[in-house]
Design brief:
76% of the residues lie in helices and 0% in strands. By secondary structure, the chain is an all-alpha fold. Helix 4 (108-115) runs antiparallel to helix 6 (136-159) and helix 4 packs across helix 7 (164-188).
Length: 312
């Protein structure tokens, strides 16, 4: 691995505490914290796989337009096309099909809290495939944050209206989504990802993912179904444009800069943001467990992202 930049030891803010990282990190976290309510609203009429396909069709078209505006090259060799397809399969097919199905069994809050465990496989896969080690401060922050996640999980599990079997099925779908997302995260932080322009790579991955999602949807649920309700259409546009075409390039940029382990802290803080949105729009009431969990996750975030050294 390359040496750590000297700037991180010369009195300047650590790489993960700089505005160039914190601003996109905050944008992604705020956007993704709001998506759980939107996804939940889309589960009534349209089969989940069709909703996922529509989302990434919109996102892929938007990313293609953006790449053309930037005049990025779409001339990919075979390796580049396979890499983009692998990103599309892991992130935009498996991950989101699993998430949408999980929300059919358990509350969006419990899905969001369980998804905070993304930190664990991201750190493990980063060590195995990228040679990145978690420093002591990052490990301390992770321990604090995971304690907060545990309190949030306990609270959400208590208020979840589903039975134990249904809850376990929902958590199982979520864990499958986590592993898929973690695979894509580590791929985006690899040297292979840096060889190809991000916007065209994501455009190809999203359009490929939308196509595979459509095949899965037709196989499992039959011909296309679309709900002409204004809320559904607005949700598809929001998830496709803001939560995908805008958020994923920002998120992957952060991953490349600070590593998948630190980048996964967006998933740690997202449940807290989701609860805040739920408070505003769904009348969510905070319990002592939830408030304590939120405080611990925020504290863990501050400790981890203020570490002087990257997680290497």
């Amino acid at each position: 691995m390359s040496a750590v930049p000297n700037a991180d030891f010369a009195g300047t803010p650590p790489r993960s505490a700089r505005a160039a990282i914190l601003i996109p990190f905050a944008i992604v976290t705020l956007i993704w914290g709001s998506t759980w309510i939107v996804i939940r609203d889309q589960l009534a009429v349209v089969p989940p796989s069709w909703s996922v396909s529509y989302r990434f069709l919109v996102a892929g078209i938007a990313m293609t337009i953006w790449a053309l505006v930037r005049r990025d090259s779409f001339r990919f060799d075979t390796r580049g096309l396979l890499f983009a397809a692998a990103i599309g399969l892991s992130q935009f097919v498996l991950n989101f099909n699993f998430v949408y199905r999980a929300e059919g069994f358990i509350t969006s809050g419990l899905v969001a809290v369980t998804f905070a465990m993304l930190l664990v496989p991201n750190a493990l896969f980063s060590r195995i495939f990228l040679g990145q080690r978690m420093g002591g401060q990052l490990m301390l922050g992770s321990a604090i944050a995971m304690a907060g996640v545990a309190l949030l999980f306990l609270h959400e599990a208590r208020v979840n209206p589903a039975g134990s079997t249904t809850t376990l099925i929902g958590i199982g779908w979520t864990l499958a989504a986590i592993l898929s997302a973690s695979t894509a995260n580590v791929m985006q932080a690899s040297e292979t990802a840096r060889r190809y322009p991000m916007a065209p790579t994501l455009a190809i991955g999203m359009l490929f993912g939308a196509g595979v999602d459509a095949v899965v949807a037709w196989t499992l649920a039959g011909p296309p179904v679309f709900e002409m309700r204004a809320g559904y259409v607005a949700g598809i546009l929001y998830l496709g444009l803001a939560a995908s075409a805008l958020a994923f390039p920002l998120y992957f940029k952060v991953l490349r800069a600070i590593g998948p382990a630190k980048g996964a802290y967006s998933g740690v803080i997202v449940p807290v943001i989701a609860m805040m949105f739920s408070t505003l729009f769904e009348g969510y009431r905070w319990s002592t467990l939830a408030a304590g969990g939120a405080a611990l996750t925020a504290a863990g975030l501050v400790v981890a992202l203020s570490a002087r050294r990257p997680n290497r």
